[in-house]
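Please produce the structure of this protein holding adenosine-5'-diphosphate.
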Amino acid sequence: LDLNLVPIFDGNEEFGGVLLVLQDVSAIKRLERMRSEFVANVSHELKTPIAAVKGFAETLLGGAVNDPETARSFLQIIFDESDRLNRLIGDILELSKIESRRVPLMFSPIELEPFMSKTVELMESEAVRKDIGITMKVEPGLYVEADEDRLRQIVMNLLSNGINYTPEGGVVSILVEPVLLPWMEGMNEEDVDYEHIRIMITDTGIGIPKKDLPRVFERFYRVDKARSRSSGGTGLGLSIVKHLVELHRGSIELDSNVGIGSTFTIELPVLQQ
Ligand code: ADP
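Below is the modeled complex.
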């Protein structure tokens, strides 16, 4: 609580009393704290690649440039770190746009079977490079009202994580089905108007420890910093996904077992209205 005492004077500048103002500032304080934490995190995240670029450029200028092999490997690091900076800034801007609701969603009906096939195609080269198989099971004839580009961003982010956090030879699978409510059971399929669809993305990867499960949707939270870094992660992917799902009035859940794999389950309303 914020407490303020304001003296009151009447028209003749005579002291008339005191106004007591009580204001609940906990929500404002919390927002302020979150904002300053975010700024601190962003600065920290940006500093690391900038320090690398600067350090390696300095060493090159200091003479390393004369050894072609060293020069080449340092330039590669500078290139990779700039790339990483670029991705970080892109994700930070994206997240801030989504959080301040500056992304107008364009809803249209999307047929999920062709949508998923196309999305998987876009991830194919990344999967092949890591020798990961992608399987897909989509119930035919399912539609959902969504912003197509944003829905693609959601699915690609989850597939990309599945590929990144799964050892070679593993599998990432997609399952799309209607959400069956108890009263729908036993009914003729044509007679049922599904209200929600479910998208499940499962991998056979490294998994996430139970204690980290609730935190992985937080900005910049990573279970294993080194691993996320080496796979080019920004630590913002899942926060972006969660926000986008919520903008579609949907929900996202995560279940995972270390050494066995992870499943992300998204439920979206079929109609947005
Ligand atoms: P990143 O860019 O680091 O991948 P994300 O926000 O996408 O950031 O994910 C946050 C963290 O959650 C990751 O750093 C990783 O530790 C964990 N994670 C996300 N997806 C998976 C997955 N499919 N399997 C195991 N761990 C995962």
